């Protein structure tokens, strides 16, 4: 069976993890955490980058920083991972789902304004497959209505929109280093990117259980104390050390994934009567996070997945739209009509893609797909 994913590993991760284990500091905010955070601040130009134990927790921090209160509304696509919604639902927000664009599976920027009410606090665009949402339009809407924009860039590391790194365009952004993403910090991990300077000081407090401990360690105050709500949002040094091994080889990982993605893209260019392949708008440089195919509908997808399984290739479908889930019905509402969210999600399958995939695997998958789409 060809796996769907293999966690990225480049060679130096174990060396750094061992060094972190043998140092006197394995808890968060040590040497490797700082090396990683500096790398991201330089790479994205953000005011502050903070490593977290997961992207889920980075999104939770963002919701706390925005002071989301019960009754506030937060706009996002329904075609996303549960954490996008949970982070805000945990603070009592009502989730307002907006339909997606069929070409990118991203929130339809032209439908956002109709979903805004006096209770709206934030817009949360999700950059699906590392392909950017239409951020100029979204930022202009946010500006007009004085809303915050939190980018769920879980899949977006090293991808850009008009040359700007995803996660650095809104007020805040979040990356994931889960082992299914392009870069991992040892299975689980995340990052909060802060572009709006107003959130920096409080972010460090919230991350340190609501204390001003970070300022204390920098010598800015002479004792630390409880000053705000907060939680335990520091990544361990072992996570940071693993990630640092990958950041040193970040470009190599990116180029290697792009090679596989492009091989799929050109191999399937002859099957356009049966399947659609991802569309990349000209303003977007993606990061080859995902290669998906779209079949004609739910039935042909089910048949395709069965055929792929018989071919010993692990292909998978993706999100079940949140608004149709039991929690989504309770905690959210769909704004307008679901023209594409359900229909397009039922057509989509993801193909195996990982760093270091062999050409033989790619060839095998391509021929399996070619047989399976004609069944
Ligand atoms: C992976 C993912 C998350 C969650 O990331 P974790 O690091 O596993 O918490 C959130 N949103 C999106 C869009 C994701 O793909």
Automatic annotation (TrEMBL):
The keyword Transferase applies. Its EC number is 2.6.1.59. The modification N6-(pyridoxal phosphate)lysine is found at residue 181. Belongs to the DegT/DnrJ/EryC1 family. It holds the Pfam family DegT_DnrJ_EryC1. NCBIfam families: ECA_wecE, PRK11706.1. GO terms for molecular function: dTDP-4-amino-4,6-dideoxygalactose transaminase activity; pyridoxal phosphate binding. It comes from the Bacteria. GO terms for biological process: polysaccharide biosynthetic process. This is dTDP-4-amino-4,6-dideoxygalactose transaminase. CDD domains: AHBA_syn. The active site is at 181 (proton acceptor).
